[in-house]
């Protein structure tokens, strides 16, 4: 059973998402919150698999809520998915850096929404190649951040290669084909890299790859 927390300051939005989720046999909405602070408190109490959090809320916004959840070891199993009306704006980018596993635009089709919840519950990032390319574009005009993340020097060559392919937006089967290995081995390389870099998920791995300079954006 996939346990879901909904956080949005608009009751109508929450009820709409809940109506979609409640009819699914494998999904259970365990709590609802009207602001980010309440979302963090309810996440601590209920330990959901997924926290669907609106990016713009009063009192505590979605970015700060994501940051608090990501910083709490007891909530390491909670995958935050940001809800937004605005696509990949600066707020979504900041949320990914704070530890969000991905984001969904609120006008998403119902079947795509349900699929996304299940994808996030598996621990996969909700970053389609087109979204990854937008993230990359943000770094074309930005120099790498100073200081490499802890663990970068401990990556093996194969782990570095896998991270680079993740940062290009490739899925595990595509990475496996590029590296001429099995999908399971590809996943193992990626998981080990995330552990060494202290990345919560693939979304944060992409951000770390570019911020550290491990991967350099192409300008052409």
From TrEMBL:
SUPFAM superfamilies: C-terminal effector domain of the bipartite response regulators (SSF46894), CheY-like (SSF52172). Residues 3-121 form the Response regulatory domain. Residues 148-213 form the HTH luxR-type domain. Keywords: DNA-binding, Phosphoprotein, Transcription, Transcription regulation. GO terms for molecular function: DNA binding. The keyword Protease does not apply. The modification 4-aspartylphosphate is found at residue 54. InterPro entries: CheY-like_superfamily, NreC/VraR/RcsB-like_REC, Sig_transdc_resp-reg_C-effctor, Sig_transdc_resp-reg_receiver, Tscrpt_reg_LuxR_C, WalR-like. One of its GO terms (biological process) is regulation of DNA-templated transcription. It comes from the Bacteria. The keyword Protease does not apply. It holds the Pfam family GerE. This is Response regulator transcription factor. It comes from Amycolatopsis mongoliensis.
